[in-house]
């Protein structure tokens, strides 16, 4: 009899955000009159900017006429978008990345989850702890992570790189040698970014041990400090050891529109084989191209008008980040992040777990956040609030927390 992939059965509980969703739904059903403010899930709230809406309208109109209709998009993305990304996101920053090294997809989550398929089944992974849960979970599904220890919340075959207040939330080089190193910069959930110097340590390390860095830069648009690179390819040597993921979700509000891309440089070789060829093959076999309409909309992200409108949108969210950061500080919390990322990471009060604090905040302030332990064992004792709410709700949520 056919068996299911039993690796899936090893995954503990449900995906973090569905657990939160269920808890909030149960609370709202019990207290329907309470206005619950959600600063939990990293979804955006502001509408698409006018330049993007206009590009969408124009592309929709084209689809309505036989002469300008588009069917399947090229599997790897339209040349107009790949060339624009190569030029504006990379070459303009001095990174040597060509259009044919850019693979357009429906978002960074799919790519971060799928990339492990092109590496061997016994590749050892290293992850920042805490971090976006998709990296570990997708490797669990692939049977790469060993056994789960409920007590410690760790997988036996995963190398954890704790990022806590003690090390400034900066991952340290691991003692055991990994094959794949997931770096999420700026980090979700801690909001920490790496300086050029700090990132160079990782690039040199990966090249010296023959590891590949899987660099998730989904929050690149929020980087505010000059010494923080926007791409790993700003660091010499990264072309031979790094794959970069980008998303249009957080810089342009595409969480519901869906678009992202992955950069696989042709110089990245494992055992003499180019990872680029394998990813092209994988993408072309299992993905049928992102919609024409959406790729056209993405072009507006790079227009002068679009850039100016999106700069304001990012500033809007970062104003929220400041409200949260300053308000919590004033209320006596130990607070981190919020400078190069739309996430605020706080220490929960002594004696509480992350989930205790989640329940406390939901019941007493009717504010939803995300328990740090959901992002990895070292997230226990911490809590994440996002700056993606609207301004008025954010101010109200923080006032409520201050008044507790
Ligand atoms: N990577 C990180 C670190 C994220 O936090 C998220 C979404 O929250 C994603 C990737 C997903 O991006 P996308 O919407 O492009 O799938």
Based on the model shown, name its key terms.
404 residues; Aspartate Aminotransferase, domain 2; seven-stranded mixed beta sheet; four-stranded antiparallel beta sheet; Aspartate Aminotransferase, domain 1; 36% helix; alpha/beta; binds pyridoxal-5'-phosphate
Describe this structure in words.
- The structure is a single chain.
- With 404 residues, the protein is α/β, with parallel strands linked by helices.
- It has two domains: 13-47 and 305-402, Alpha-Beta Complex (Aspartate Aminotransferase, domain 1), CATH 3.90.1150; 53-303, 3-Layer(aba) Sandwich (Aspartate Aminotransferase, domain 2).
- Helix content is 36%, strand content 15%.
- It has twelve helices and 17 strands.
- The strands form five sheets. Strands 2-10-9-8-7-3-6 form a seven-stranded mixed sheet, with helices on both faces. Strands 13-14-17-16 form a four-stranded antiparallel sheet.
- Strand 11 and strand 12 (273-274) form a beta hairpin.
- Helix 2 (50-63) packs antiparallel against helix 9.
- The longest helix has 27 residues, at 304-330.
- The N and C termini lie far apart (57 Å).
- 46% of the residues are buried.
- The mean pLDDT is 97.
